């Protein structure tokens, strides 16, 4: 993990600290309860604490038959711990009721294991870095219930015979299923279709539902993300947008084709798409451009990956903004 944003690091450290103090607060509540309701367990618990103090004293003093003393104290401690577990059960408590319950058992919510950042800490830094990146996204997020199939015609298209409402219903069902079964091994999707057919709307529904499920999702227009990447690259900001995008659980790149075609943009795009394919993690790309327009605008390496490795969803119908306007004027 390079170029960690200081604010994401601070938020992650505060969250770890919050988890740790919450674990100890709960333990204190449990102890107080046991003190009141089962004093015999409480006195045994205090004896363990006393033995632990004796143990550390013995280790520091280095006197007499130190190994024998340490072994005896350890043995005594284990026996008392076992007794406590049995007694807790007898009193109707879980046998670990007097142990602090940490969110992360690897680091006991300290954030570090053997001097290195624990996975839980890195995971939180990643989460906050992504939410900072998404803060700049001005696409509104929507729920699945908001999608209105009635905006799509139920009459077959004269040329293709495709019924827009049926096509969109199929896509809607598939996207719901995508969300329900989503994992880091899910497939990548390529949303194609003219402007105003609901690609961004459906993308925002997927993003919202998966963020609510706790996944780390990057969702923004390609144009916005590339501007951020450019700002990082030229030192105008201190983030690492490309690395954050590459490492997210799901990346939704909206509106491919809206960005300026520059060598910098093309190489960043290729890097993101290719890296995520190599890592076998899912990406969703949407575009208003036709395949021939895409072929004109992009390097063959980008197009071959999008058309060869992504599952295409072809949106169909009439621009729903026009449909809405017509309905309003009726
Ligand atoms: Zn941890």
Can you give me a brief rundown of this structure?
This protein is of the alpha/beta class and 330 residues long.
Characterization of this structure:
With 330 residues, the chain is of the alpha/beta class. The chain folds into two domains: 115 residues, no CATH class; 194 residues, P-loop containing nucleotide triphosphate hydrolases (Rossmann fold, 3-Layer(aba) Sandwich). Helices cover 58% and strands 9% of the residues. It has twelve helices and seven strands. The strands form two sheets. A five-stranded parallel β-sheet has the order 4-5-6-3-7, sandwiched between helices. A two-stranded antiparallel sheet has the order 1-2. α9 links the parallel β5 and β6. α2 packs antiparallel against α3 and α5 packs parallel to α6. The chain is elongated, with a radius of gyration of 29 Å. The two termini are 56 Å apart. The mean pLDDT is 91. The protein binds zinc ion.
Describe how the helices and strands are arranged:
Layout: H1 6-37, H2 39-61, H3 66-90, E1 112-113, E2 116-117, H4 119-135, H5 164-180, E3 189-192, H6 199-212, E4 217-221, H7 222-233, H8 241-247, E5 250-256, H9 263-278, E6 283-287, H10 291-297, H11 300-309, E7 311-314, H12 320-329
Parallel strand pairs: 3-6, 3-7, 4-5, 5-6
Antiparallel strand pairs: 1-2
């Amino acid at each position: 993990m390079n170029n960690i944003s200081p604010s994401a690091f601070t938020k992650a450290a505060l969250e770890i600290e919050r988890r740790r103090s919450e674990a100890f607060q709960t333990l204190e509540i449990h102890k107080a309860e046991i003190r009141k309701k089962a004093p015999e367990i409480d006195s045994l618990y205090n004896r363990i604490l006393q033995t632990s103090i004796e143990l550390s004293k013995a280790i520091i003093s280095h006197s007499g038959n130190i190994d024998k003393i340490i072994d005896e104290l350890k043995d005594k401690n284990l026996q008392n711990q076992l007794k406590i577990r049995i007694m807790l059960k007898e009193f109707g408590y879980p046998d670990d009721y007097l142990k602090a319950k940490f969110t992360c058992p690897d680091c006991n919510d300290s954030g570090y294991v053997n001097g290195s950042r624990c996975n839980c800490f890195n995971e939180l830094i990643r989460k906050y870095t992504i939410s900072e990146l998404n803060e700049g996204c001005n696409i509104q997020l929507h729920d699945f219930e908001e999608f209105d199939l009635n905006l799509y015609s139920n009459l077959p298209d004269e040329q293709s015979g495709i019924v827009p409402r049926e096509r969109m219903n199929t896509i809607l069902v598939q996207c719901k299923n995508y969300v329900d079964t989503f994992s880091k091994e899910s497939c990548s999707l390529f949303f194609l279709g003219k402007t105003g057919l609901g690609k961004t709307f459906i993308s925002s529904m997927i993003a919202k539902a998966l963020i609510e499920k706790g996944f780390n999702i990057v969702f923004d227009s390609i144009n916005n993300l590339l501007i951020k990447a450019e700002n990082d690259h030229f030192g105008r900001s201190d983030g690492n947008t490309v690395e954050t995008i590459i490492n997210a659980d799901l990346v939704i790149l909206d509106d491919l084709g809206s960005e300026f075609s520059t060598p910098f943009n093309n190489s960043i795009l290729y890097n993101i798409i290719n890296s995520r394919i190599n890592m076998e993690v899912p990406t969703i790309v949407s575009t208003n451009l036709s395949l021939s327009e895409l072929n004109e605008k992009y390097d063959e390496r980008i197009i071959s990956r999008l058309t060869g490795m992504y599952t295409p969803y072809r949106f169909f119908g009439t621009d729903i903004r026009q449909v809405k306007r017509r309905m309003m004027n009726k």
